[in-house]
Amino acid sequence: MICVRDLSKRFGPTLAVDRISFEIGRGEIVGFLGPNGAGKTTTIRVLTGFHPATSGSASIDGHDVATASLAARRRIGYLPENVPIYPDLRVVEYLRYRAALKGVPARSRRAAVAQAMARAGIEEVARKLCGHVSRGYRQRVGLADALVANPPILILDEPTSGLDPNQRRRIKQVVRELAQEHTVLFSSHILTEVEDVSSRIIVIHRGRLRADGPARELVARSAARRLRVRAACDLARLTELVRGIAGLTVDRGSAAPPDAAVVEASVAAAAEPAAEVGRRLLAAGIAVHELQVALPTLEEYFHAVTEGSDRAEEHQLAAAAEGAA
Fold first, then answer.
1. Residue 309: which H helix or E strand, with range?
2. Domain 2-219 sits in CATH 3.10.620.30
3. Which of 259, 264, 223 has its CA nearest to residue 243?
């Protein structure tokens, strides 16, 4: 439904998007993540026809956004972060006007507007002036606008911005329901919401693609996993048994009175050392009180592939400079 190939966008000397590629299939809900200035909004604006790409290509439901822009835009319902609505129109009037602009037939327009308002949860403000509704309702009016022509693809830029917790919960439920009939790409800074709703996430940073896949799988494959073992022996013995297992790096240990010790270790990507730790302790006749491998949170993973990767690159460059000197 959405296909991006080697997409780049420059604004003068600034490279905002740097050769990113991804595909989104029918019925997927994909979270689009990145720090401020990462290139998310620029990418969305290229997909929705607001900006031309500098190089590469993007297509919406088989229509190239550069050469068949109108056909591509007809397939999209777009909710920008800051919703531009006419303050002097009533909500229902605004949505009927937008439905007409989007080519909804006159005989179907009233029903389409009613359905969009119901899905966005704004029926109670239908007769209010757009300029008199709260920011939260303004955002929901924008969502109804994106839905009113029933497009197959929805692109939502910060759909829960300015909403209270109850409103955010409702919008998340709406997004889940939309996946039955629509493909959804949405960006958000609230990572728990992305994890709750999306079937997959795409992370970009400094204009480059940093991660693409189901959130749980990406986190599970990350190198930030930690093993914690608590056993009925002294610290030196427990450290000796754990040290040397492939994929484990012992970070710290401590005594756990009255007669136990705790060791924590970093787990390398793709390593599964827990079973070997358990076997060694069993062979040594040591009772195990706790043995677990903890995954990082999505927030920790996000930090690792954005700011964390920047710091790793900086350390590598510094080390290379010292070696050259």
1. helix 307-324
2. no
3. 264
Which residue do the tokens 């029926």 mark? 123
- CA torsion, points 166, 178, 25, 270, in degrees to nearest 10? 30
* Class at the top of the CATH hierarchy for domain 223-294: alpha beta
Write out pLDDT tens, residues 94-115: 999 999 999 999 999 999 999 9
- Position 188: which residue type? S
Domain positions in the chain:
2-219, 223-294
Summarize pLDDT for 252-273 with one digit per residue, the tens: 999 988 889 999 998 887 788 9
- Dist. CA 17–CA 6, nearest whole Å: 10
Q: If you write DSSP's letter for every residue of 147-215 in order, what string do you get?
A: HTT--SEEEEESTTTT--HHHHHHHHHHHHHHTTT-EEEEE-S-HHHHHHH-SEEEEEETTEEEEEE-H
Task: Look at residue 26 and give its three-state secondary structure.
Answer: coil
Residue 280 has pLDDT above 50, yes or no: yes
Interatomic CA distance for residues 58 and 271, integer angstroms: 37
Q: Whole-angstrom Cα distance, residue 136 to residue 181?
A: 25
Coil, strand or helix: which one is 82? coil
